[in-house]
Design brief:
Two copies of one chain form a homodimer.
Chain A: H1 3-21, E1 26-27, H2 29-36, H3 40-48, E2 54-55, E3 59-61, H4 62-73, E4 79-84, H5 88-94, H6 98-101, E5 104-111, E6 120-121, E7 124-128, H7 132-139, E8 143-146, H8 150-162, E9 167-170, E10 183-186, H9 189-205
Parallel strand pairs in A: 4-5, 4-8, 5-7, 8-9, 9-10
Antiparallel strand pairs in A: 1-3, 2-3, 6-7
Helix pairs in contact in A: 1-4, 2-3
The structure holds a DNA duplex (24 and 24 nucleotides).
DNA sequence: TAGATTGTTAATCGATTAACAATC
DNA sequence: TAGATTGTTAATCGATTAACAATC
């Protein structure tokens, strides 16, 4: 499965779910492409990577595609996850409903600040970071959302690795160099704004 | 400038800034590549896109590269920005220091909830959304950070467009189909977790 | 000089697009 | 049947990598 395709799979999934919410049963590659800014050919080629799902003359059945994409992404099951760092951002993310609906369940939260440890956010009690290894093992947590300050990120990440976590979603603006066995996806808000600034500048030049 | 290169520019910038903080004056393509998981050839090829900056036998001067990358991205100036939506996520983002340091200054914040409008976050008073067009014009705001609920995003985005904003950083999990004159960068936290889940599943299969 | 490292060419690899027969 | 749409081939385009002469 080409990695360019995988990165679009989540995009297709989100759009297909919106289509189903609006009571669409089927969608053509042309219409789906237009919604997402892709060509019809690209949509069909992407879907062809995992089988023949289309109905010539009709299009694709939304529900069928959704199921298939979730299976490929691995979100046809529930992933237990941990929120690591419950400051501003961590608290906001704990309140985000979108994780749950897409197959993720935040089942533990950690911090080290005395005024945060022990408090409750969205029905989840914040534990001390020291108890992370035990809780991760006990609850079978595989994914961690890392929302600690930049200067703590590398150290905390190594605790995550030692605890046996297999994936880290990193919100700290630092490069995490973890063992190959652990996957990392980084989200850097300043970097995203930079890309936006570039797009605006470029458009201005044209 | 190839767009694959642009997306790495922010990554180079962040790493170079970290190197400068650690008192490094120069860095070779091999070392920088190793830090970021890229090949030395790719690093050199990327930098070659915007001139000859390297010193054979020595490497690249960090400060010089930083200046050049900021100039290209357009972050050698300050971009006035607006936070649109000051719920959980918006408030957390207002508290984030990283924007400021990279060339972005959030100079206005908006919401519609009566208990939020008028309150203060990080020294910024939240205005009612109705006053957005006037404030955007007055302060010359070009970028908006959209942190409203999914079902409000499209409507609010169209207000942004009418107000003359040229770039939107969209945190709502919906596709924004805006005029070509407006740039959009989307950050969808559930999508990022899906990509992480896929990476973990794939690794497990190998 | 010897060692380190760049800039660049040519080769390879992967992704996108155009076109169209096959299908419903 | 006519119209809509898929799946797939071949062509094009863009990005990455290997190799190495040139430079400090």
């Amino acid at each position: 499965m080409p990695k360019a395709v995988v990165s679009r799979l989540s995009l297709y999934l989100r759009e297909l779910q919106a289509l189903v919410r609006d009571d669409n049963k089927t969608i053509s590659s042309t219409k789906l492409g237009r919604l997402l800014g892709l060509t019809d050919t690209q949509v069909r080629k992407d879907f062809a990577c995992f089988g023949q799902f289309g109905y010539p003359g009709i299009g694709y059945r939304c529900e069928e595609l959704i199921g298939e994409i979730r299976r490929i992404l691995g979100t046809d099951r529930i992933w237990p996850a941990a929120m690591v760092g419950c400051g501003n951002l961590g608290q906001a993310l704990l309140g985000y409903r979108g994780f749950q609906s897409q197959g993720f369940s935040v089942q533990a939260a950690f911090d080290i600040a005395p005024d945060i440890v022990g408090s409750n956010f969205c029905g989840l009690k914040v534990d001390h970071l020291d108890s992370l290894p035990a809780v991760v093992a006990e609850k079978g947590i595989q994914l961690a959302i890392l929302a600690v300050p930049a200067d703590a990120a590398i150290e905390v990440a190594s605790i995550l690795v030692k605890s046996g976590v297999s994936g880290v979603l990193n919100f700290a603006p630092v490069t995490l160099n973890l063992p190959k066995s652990v996957s990392v996806v980084g989200v850097d808000l300043a970097m995203e704004l930079e890309q936006l600034a570039f797009a605006v500048v470029k458009k201005g030049e044209k």
